[in-house]
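@channel sequence for tomorrow's demo:
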Amino acid sequence: MAIALSASTDINVDIALYLGRDSGTDLNNQFIKLSNELSQMAKKEDFVILSFRDSNLQHFSQLSSDSKIAINQQLHTLVSICAGLQEQGEKIRSVKSLIWAFLKHFQCVGPSDLLTHIHEGDFVDAYGFNHRMLFAGLTFFEVFNYSLEEFFCCSWFDLFERKDQTVQQQLLDLSHEMVIGKHQNIISTKYIPHHLCQEKASKEKMMVRVEPQFFAPLFHQGRIIGYLCVNRGQMAN
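structure tokens (generated this afternoon):
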């Protein structure tokens, strides 16, 4: 049985493009507005999310219009979900609350025991086809030193380095199995070794010991549209 959710709109195969395009909007200003809104929401709960390091948007400004639109769509979704949670008196720091709201927003279902496997403080990311990130919990910003701009605009490989390269291949292999529909239930990733993940592009070079937990498929109307990746981590420096 799956967690049943409802929402007022349909979902596309590529839910990263869920929101409609608005070609009349200044994309840079839209990013600044959305990222500042999320930063202010975090401030209400006494944690810090850095919007960007420079209002010139060094990374965002270099992207194509299509990439900017996709990022603003992702950020708009995250801001909308967080605003809804705070309006209901819930905490956006709560991983479980945020994931539940994300699934509801996109009319997704997951394995029935999904939320029982997620712990507060877990790193939870959602990916669609082509392994495009659709959503990420905010635990990331409480541990790492990157801004929203860096997180959304830079590739994972530019931001982080795994000390054990074999781990990267194991994760890629499993993520491919998820999107082709090989797995219908939660798949433990505890067989993947704990490993060190270090910031590459920050001054602090923060290092975190990552403990893989599980992958979980996401469905819409009976078909796989993405997956969740869940890890735990502890600072190692």
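heads up for whoever presents: The chain has eight helices and seven strands.
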